[in-house]
Specification:
- The protein has about 550 residues and is an alpha/beta fold.
- About 50% of the residues lie in helices and about 15% in strands.
- The chain folds into 4 domains: about 90 residues, Arginyl tRNA synthetase N-terminal domain (Gyrase A, domain 2); about 130 residues, Isoleucyl-tRNA Synthetase, Domain 1; about 80 residues, no CATH class; about 100 residues, HUPs (Rossmann fold, 3-Layer(aba) Sandwich), CATH 3.40.50.620.
- A hairpin with a 2-residue loop joins β8 and β9.
- α13 packs across α14 and α17 runs antiparallel to α18.
- It is globular and about 90 Å long.
- The protein binds one RNA strand of 77 nucleotides through α2, β9, β10, α15 and α16.
Length: about 550
RNA sequence: GCGCCCAUAGCUCAGUUGGAUAGAGCGACGGACUACGAAUCCGUAGGUCGCAGGUUCGAAUCCUGCUGGGCGCGCCA
């Protein structure tokens, strides 16, 4: 509907030009916004202000001319005014927003689905935490963010692939293997010490004990060199199992688990190095092979093959991203922890070097979580083994509150997560506010059922009875839901959903507290039941996008 | 030293891609249940949008320079 209003405005400008009241020239896009204050109308445009200087007239004069030539063909406008420095404010007909209730009711759960993403494919790679330790709270934030973003993209029509890239090979795996091996020996009372850079977490001992039980002493006679690889592999499978369990419990779903090992197995890493060599984009220096990333905006060149002949993670990452591009997505999204930001220029360099479109590749950095316990900082190093696992937080805080809490903040905003505070928020957490609105409506329905009142659909209801400002406001929130989803998908900012929910739930609670849904007036009762039914639906699908439960009772 | 991110109410944070008198939650204070759930609602108090310039009709938002905090700068990931 924004579109038709925009056309009305553009046609008015055209007419003004034809009559010579406005000068020709390029026309900037007509921006329509929802004014914060109701007395500024339902929509406002700043077009007069943006073209005024070129017209050599004051913004208000230009606005007056545009208003004079407005023709409201669809008949949606109640009145128009020029206000402030030159805004044109549109007040729409009283029934305007209510018309959207029909759409929302007819489409039910699908309301808001489809749109900007239709016919497009997007790959969201997120989390991709190394299988060297259990997920911690910082991973949780990225997991929630990626999952919700993917949900939203899916909602607006994209075909979404969610992918987790597993670094299951290389130096980290070796170190993991060695650490478990040492612990395994210690289980057999051998006098060996963990290397200083080894993984020190309790979970390593747990895996070692598990090995002792299932495999017995059969690795004792073998040398470290013979078993490190095996231990690393087995341990990472155990850990990956934990990760998958945690994610399942955290309601995060992946379509594909992409193994770095497979890249090697299929020769993609060798092939990418070959390709770079052919293009003259690598050179040897001090025994290592360097990629000329500085040619493409990186601050310096990067090693892809070490002097000892092993490839770096960067090399397989290039191969992986090439492979992603070849799968022909319209958009490739990588979600990384902010500590990887230095990696962006080199990845972009690699993409350009291979001749791919840089604009299709987007990296979202999620700031790390600063974990506190009772105001005291907790170290988060996996290797040091001091971390608070996602599992522990899920147990303490609950999945709903935890996910909602993460989505309250923008990705770029660092997050202080105080466990004591989060637990306290178990009572005060905004998630309950929204869930309560949903449960309340469910409760109204129960009441209606007791009174044998049917929940109506749109054609059984005279919506013109809904003329309270609150009702108009609620209808408006429902009406803008689809474009709100689009906005999040285009900006890749899923955190806005919590603001929307807060706003919608707040309006509902106020309305509920002041007016009765079920009353003696049967027509009014039907109209209001329809309205809250639709609100319940929007609450529900929004919560679903957040991966938060929408309870019928609390 | 260089690069990225952050700085908005006492606290935690939003702010519709540059709009009109900057908003919410928590906390504080004062009110509202004999009718659909008080996990709610209504009201009050609380601000030099880190500082200084610049861009323009208009800046929390964009540019430059500072200050403070986080992160990164390896043949680690």
């Amino acid at each position: 509907m924004k579109k038709s209003l925009r056309e009305i405005i553009m046609r008015a400008i055209e007419r003004g030009r034809e009559r010579g009241e406005l000068a020709d020239g390029p026309l900037p896009p007509v921006m329509l916004e929802y004014p914060k204050e109701e007395r500024h109308g339902d929509y406002a445009t700043n077009i007069a202000m943006t073209i005024a200087s070129r017209q050599r007239r004051s913004p208000r004069e230009v606005a007056d001319i545009i208003v004079r030539w407005l023709e409201d063909e669809p008949g949606i406008i109640e009145r128009v005014e020029v206000a402030g420095p030159g805004f044109i404010n549109f007040f729409l007909k009283e029934d305007y927003w209510r018309h959207f209730l029909a759409e929302a009711d007819r489409q039910g759960e699908r309301y808001g689905a489809g749109g900007v993403g239709m016919g497009k494919k997007v790959l969201v790679e997120f989390l991709s935490a190394n299988p060297t330790g259990p997920l911690h709270i910082g991973h949780g934030r990225i997991a929630a963010f990626g999952d919700v973003l993917a949900n939203i993209l899916e909602k607006v029509g994209y075909e979404v692939q969610r992918e987790y890239y597993i670094n299951d090979i290389g130096t980290q795996m070796e170190l993991l293997g060695r650490s478990v091996y040492i612990r395994y020996l210690q289980e057999w009372e051998k006098k060996v010490e963990l290397p200083t850079d080894g993984y020190r977490g309790e979970y390593i001992k747990e895996i070692a004990r598990q090995f002792k039980e299932t495999e017995g002493d059969k690795y004792l006679p073998l040398s470290e060199g013979e078993v490190v690889d095996l231990f690393g592999q087995k341990a990472s499978e155990v850990i990956l199992g934990w990760i998958k369990d945690d994610l399942k419990r955290f309601r995060v779903r992946f379509d594909r688990w992409y193994r770095e090992r497979d890249l090697y197995r299929e020769g993609l890493v060798t092939r990418i190095l070959e390709e770079l060599r052919k293009r003259g984009l690598v050179y040897e220096q001090e025994g290592a092979l360097w990629f000329k990333s500085s040619l493409f905006g990186d601050e310096k060149d990067r090693v892809v093959v070490r002097a000892n002949g092993t490839t770096t993670y960067f090399a397989s990452d290039i191969a992986y991203h090439k492979e992603k591009y070849e799968r022909e997505y319209n958009l490739l999204i990588d979600i990384w922890g902010a500590d990887h930001h230095g990696y962006i220029p080199r990845m972009q360099a690699a993409i350009q070097a291979l001749g791919y479109e840089k604009s299709r590749f987007k990296v979202i950095l999620v700031q790390l979580v600063n974990l506190l316990r009772g105001g005291k900082q907790v170290s988060m190093s996996t290797r040091a083994g001091e971390f608070t696992s996602l599992r522990e937080v899920m147990d303490e805080v609950g999945v709903d509150a935890c996910r909602y809490f993460f989505m309250l903040r923008r990705a770029e905003s660092p997050l202080d997560f105080d466990l004591e505070l989060a637990k306290k928020q178990g009572e005060e957490n905004p998630v309950y506010y929204v869930q309560y609105a949903h449960a309340r409506i469910a409760s109204i329905f129960k009441k209606a059922a007791e009174k044998e009142v049917k929940i109506p659909s749109f054609d059984e209801v005279d919506t013109s009875l809904l003329r309270l400002p609150q009702e108009r406001g609620l209808a408006k929130r429902v009406a803008i839901f689809p474009e709100f989803l689009e906005g999040m998908a285009l900006s890749l900012e899923p955190h806005r959903l919590t603001s929307y929910l807060q706003d919608l739930a707040g309006l509902f609670h106020g309305y509920y507290n002041r007016y009765r849904i079920i009353s003696q007036d049967t027509e009014m009762t039907k109209a209001r039941l329809l309205l809250v039914k639709i609100i319940k639906g929007v609450l529900r699908s929004s919560l679903e996008l957040l991966g938060v439960l929408a309870p019928e009772q609390m």
